[in-house]
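Would you mind writing out the residues of a protein together with its fold in token form for me to study?
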Amino acid sequence: MNNTRNYWIKLAHVHPRRLGWNDDTRRGIMQQRYGVESTAKLPLDKLRDWVSYLYHQVQKIPTKSESDFAAKQKQIAKIHAQCKAMNLPLSYANTIAKNQHGIDYLEWLSPAQLRGVIAALAYHQQRRKRK
């Protein structure tokens, strides 16, 4: 029984970290739901209910691949719009990607690398306005 309880207590501490909660947040929500601030004070059935609640909260978080894909699509659309606004071919942005990161195509870049291409295009646009 003690091993089972320890297992549930560990889960009760892992899930809040995955949600980005600090100890005060976790304890505050436990206080609202169960009237206690510590998982050690919860009976096993309430502890299981708490872990179930946390698990369902974690499931609502979009996975990294989904959020990366959505972010990349928005960034690539922005790069397309920037190139179109400056009457530049998309190959210009691919050349920036190759020069900055050694990667031939925009689609292969990470969201952080795409931000660098967007910044370079914005800088190019500013330079054009000054002339």
Notes: The chain has a mean pLDDT of 87. The CA atoms of residues 84 and 90 lie 8 Å apart.
